[in-house]
Amino acid sequence: xxxxxxxxxxxxxxxxxxxxxxxxxxxxxxxxxxxxxxxxxxxxxxxxxxxxxxxxxxxxxxxxxxxxxxxxxxxxxxxxxxxxxxxxxxxxxxxxxxxxxxxxxxxxxxxxxxxxxxxxxxxxxxxxxxxxxxxxxxxxxxxxxxxxxxxxxxxxxxxxxxxxxxxxxxxxxxxxxxxxxxxxxxx
Length: 187
Ligand SMILES: N[C@@H](CCC(=O)N[C@@H](CS)C(=O)NCC(=O)O)C(=O)O
Prior knowledge:
Blueprint lengths: L4 E3 L25 E4 L3 E3 L2 H12 L10 H31 L2 H4 L2 H21 L12 H15 L7 H12 L1 H13 L1
Antiparallel strand pairs: 1-2, 2-3
Helix pairs in contact: 2-4, 2-5
The structure holds glutathione (GSH).
Glutathione binds next to helix 2.
């Protein structure tokens, strides 16, 4: 699929800024970042997924043919960012950069509780199902599982058994393995 340029980790040094990737309005400097034909530049992961699905779809990753599945997919795709991903950045900052007095402060504990609540919610959703929205992968899984990877990998936190098995299923997918080999090539 001839989508434009996409940056993930590792991001080429000096890629961001005026006249560079994403143009002047993407100085936030976060990845992922997508540039596409026609002056398109996006650096919000959920917007990138919705854009690619609409622009280059249709795709079963966004099941628009079934209202109930589409609603669930949209809901959980946003949930992955607003209830999981968004809370992880301050938690990572606290974990790796905060002084001792702030590592376990009120905000950190509150954010952890919020992520744990989302984890419980997701575990209920994958009970008896292969993926969050049913038996097929959707954008929701890409959104939510990314945060779970950070929770476990970067923060060293636990996931319940049901979600460990879910992550294993995702990792076993051929597309995941292909992406992993590509990442290894550029490292
Ligand atoms: N809301 C953004 C968050 C992006 C984000 O936090 N990306 C991290 C890497 S996973 C990053 O680039 N962090 C560097 C920074 O915040 O300076 C999204 O969903 O794409």
